[in-house]
Amino acid sequence: MFNLILFGPPGSGKGTQSEKLIEKYGLIHLSTGNLLREEIANQTKLGLEAKSFMDKGQLVPDAVVIGMINSALEANSQAKGFLFDGFPRTVAQAEALDTLLSGKGAGISIVLALEVDQEELVKRLLNRGKSSGRSDDTDESVIRARLVEYENKTAPVASYYAGFGKVVYVKGVGGIDDIFQSLSRQIEARQLA
Ligand code: ADP
Question: pTM (2 decimals)?
C-alpha cells in the first residue's frame, strides 16, 4: 500500500493538490474536513458536535475524527493506498493512524509538507471565503484561530514523522501545476508510486 499524508496549514493548497494527486496515483482521498462537512450537511449528531468547534476555528476532538477515519479505512479495504488530507492534525491522531494502518500490515509511506507563509495563508483563505460558502473562511479572527491551532497542535505532527525520516518539505507558493510537479517528483523519487 502507498499511503501519503499531504501536510500543511489551512490554505496551503492541500485540497487542490489532493484532487490532482489522487487522480495521478489512484489513491483514495480521505479529507477529515470534507467528511466533517458532510456530517454537518446531513445534520448528524457527530456533525452537530463538530460544528461548534469548527465555527470557532478549533480542532474537533481526536476521538471523533479517529472514529471517522477508522470507518473510512474499513469502507475502502481494497484500496491500493490513501491520501490523508487534513489528518492527522495532532500527535495523538498520528499515533492512532499508525496503529490502524499497522493492523493492516501497512504504514505511512511519505509526508509531503506544503510550506506557505502566514500572511499569504490569511489572504488565500479570505479570498476562498468569497466563494466557498465556508463560514470559517469569512471571519479573519476564525482564520487566525485556525492558524494558532495549527502552530500549537498540528505542527508537532511534522516533527513526529520527521523522527521516522518520512517528511519532505515542498514550497507551496507558485503555480498550481508547478507545485504539483514538485510533489509528484518527490513521490516518484522514492519509487513508492
Ligand atoms: P482547513 O485546512 O482549510 O482549515 P479543513 O477542511 O481541513 O480546512 O478543516 C476545517 C475544520 O474542520 C478545522 O478547522 C477543524 O475544526 C476541523 N477538522 C478537520 N480535520 C480535523 C482533524 N483531523 N482533527 C480535528 N479537527 C479537524
Answer: 0.95
The DSSP code for 12 is: S
CATH architecture type of domain 2-27+79-192: 3-Layer(aba) Sandwich (3.40)
Beta bridge partners of 171: 115
Q: Which three cell numbers stand for residue 44?
A: 448528524
Q: Is 134 a catalytic residue?
A: yes
Spans of all domains in the chain: 2-27+79-192
Q: Is residue 89 annotated as a catalytic residue, yes or no?
A: yes
- CA–CA separation, 13 and 151 (whole Å): 17
Residue 109 clears pLDDT 70, i.e. is over it: yes
CA of 156 to the centre of ligand 1 (A): 16
CA-to-CA distance for 71 and 139, rounded, in angstroms?
Answer: 32
For the chain, the helix, strand and coil percentages under 3-state DSSP, each to the nearest 5: 60, 15, 30
pLDDT at 191: 63
Say if residues 20 and 132 touch (Cβ distance below 8 Å). no
Q: Ligand 1 pocket, 124 CB below 6 A?
A: no
123 is catalytic: no
Lowest mean pLDDT, pick from 54-58, 70-74, 188-192: 188-192
> In this predicted model, what pLDDT tens digit does every residue of 10-33 receive, in sequence order?
999 999 999 999 999 999 999 999
Q: Which residues does residue 31 pair with via DSSP β-bridges, in sequence order? A: 85
Are 25 and 18 in contact by the 8 Å Cβ rule? The answer is no
Looking at the DSSP assignment, which residues form a beta bridge with residue 140? none
